[in-house]
Amino acid sequence: MEFDPVLISRLQFAFVVSFHAIFPVFTIGLASYIALLEGLHFKTGNPLWAQLSRFWTKVFAVAFGMGVVSGIVMSFQFGTNWSNFAQASANFLGPILSYEVVTAFFLEAAFLGVLLFGRDKVPRGTHLFAACMVALGTFVSAFWILVANSWMHTPAGAEFRDGILHVTSWTEAIFNPSFPYRFTHMAVASFLTGSFVVAGVSAWYLLKGHRVEANKKALSMCLWMILFLAPAQAVIGDFHGLNTLEYQPTKLAAMEGNWETQSNVPLLLFALPSKEAQGNLFEVGIPSLASIILTHHADGVVPGINEASPAEQPPVSIVFWSFRAMVGIGFLMIAFGLWGLVLRMRRQLYEPGLFHRTLPFMIAAPFIAVVAGWVTTESGRAPWLVYGMLSFAEGVTPSLSGWMAVVSLIGYMAVYAVVYAAGGYYLWQVVKGGMDGSEPGSDEAGAHPKRPLSGGGPIGDAAPAAPLKGDWT
Question: Which PANTHER family match (predicted)?
Answer without folding.
Answer: CYTOCHROME BD MENAQUINOL OXIDASE SUBUNIT I-RELATED, CYTOCHROME D UBIQUINOL OXIDASE
